[in-house]
Amino acid sequence: MGLSYGPVAKVVVEDRGKVRVLRLNRPEVLNAIDGETAALIESTIVEFAADHSARVLVVTGDERSFCTGADLKNVGSLVERSGWQRTGPLGFARLDPGKPAVAAVEGYCFAGGLELALWCDFRIAGASAEFGVLNRRWGISLVDGGTQRLRSVLGVGNALYLLETGARVDTAWGLRNGLVQEVVTAGAAFDRALELAEQVASYPQASLLADRKGLLRAAGLDIGLRLEAELGYATLNDPETARLLEAFARGDRPPSPRPPA
After folding, report:
1. What are phi and psi of 20, to 5 degrees?
2. What residues does each domain of the chain span?
């Protein structure tokens, strides 16, 4: 069954048997998230959590971009959305459907898009995918789980490397450091993620979900997410950030560092 939201769907939802697919559909802005998109992400996650026929969620974008984070030309809409403080501005950070989610990443996966990929249980990447905390250039904090999930996935040193340098890294770096679990031919990430999701969905669910819950609860994520919000939200009114967002709107894109080959 295929579902979509809105006259020009910013989020497309489709069921593939026991797997539900959430596809960001804003190619004109590299799948950046505005308030409407965040609300649709939230509702999709909530509905997935409540639907016992859907066992695994696959989150994806298109071949050019998984997601580039917040729509910085419409950032106000993210905090005008009802309930944003409960979920996080982008609609997912503090939600757990209680079931597995897999990210299928092609192309750009930056800033809040990286946070969305990290929100998923694991990540499958096409060979040309790129990752980074590129929002560092604009003075914008990670307030959708990034500080906590980067540390949990990568360890403190690698997390601080991405957070502090704003480096733009490739799939080789990501695979070596645990950011992605598999790298496949460019364009094949969704098919592979779907294949794995179908395998996960085929297993007995009670034991799988119990093991998942035990692992995630032991990570102490809830306390960390509250601390991230407390610290990060306080920076949203920084005058320097406002100045840099004006530069972004004018098309000013300073380069991000890249690790040596």
Report:
1. -105, 140
2. 2-249
Q: Minimal CA–CA distance to 31: which of 10, 13, 12, 14?
A: 10
Domain boundaries 2-249, corresponding CATH code: 3.90.226.10
Nearest alpha carbon to residue 61 among 77, 42, 78, 41: 41
- Kind of pairing between the strands at 56-60 and 19-24: parallel
With beta carbons less than 8 A apart as the criterion, state whether 67 and 131 touch: no
- The predicted structure's pLDDT at residue 260: 80
Residues 19-51 pLDDT 10s: 999 999 999 999 999 999 999 999 999 999 999
| H or E element at residue 160 | helix 156-165
* pLDDT tens sequence across 147-193: 999 999 999 999 999 999 999 999 999 999 999 999 999 999 999 99
Picking from 83, 70, 67, 80, the residue whose alpha carbon sits closest to that of residue 31 is: 67
What is the pTM for the complete model shown? 0.87
